[in-house]
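Troubleshooting: if your tokenizer reports a length mismatch, compare your output against this known-good record of 108 residues.
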Amino acid sequence: MMQPSPKKNEKIIMIKIYKILGKKGRITIPYEIRSKLGFTYNDVVSFEDKGNGCVVIKKEKICDSCNKPAEADMSILEYLDSLTPVEQNAALAYLSRKKVDIRARQIK
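Known-good structure output:
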């Protein structure tokens, strides 16, 4: 996918920051990049291997109706069944994190 060409008089500022990969394979996306790209807590991001050692990190939208309230007559299972497989996986990941957060608070 080609990058759009900059508009006249528009400057592109490239940021290159070095980070060390942790023992468990974790790395923090630097604040400067998170803020520039608008990443916030609990955002879903994808990693796409472009080859030649390049990886594209992209903020993803997991659901077209996330801001719409669910119908009152619909059970949670019916709602989950109405989602696409990608949306169901994202919901499962989110609910799994929530369960871990709740358990961690109960232990404290």
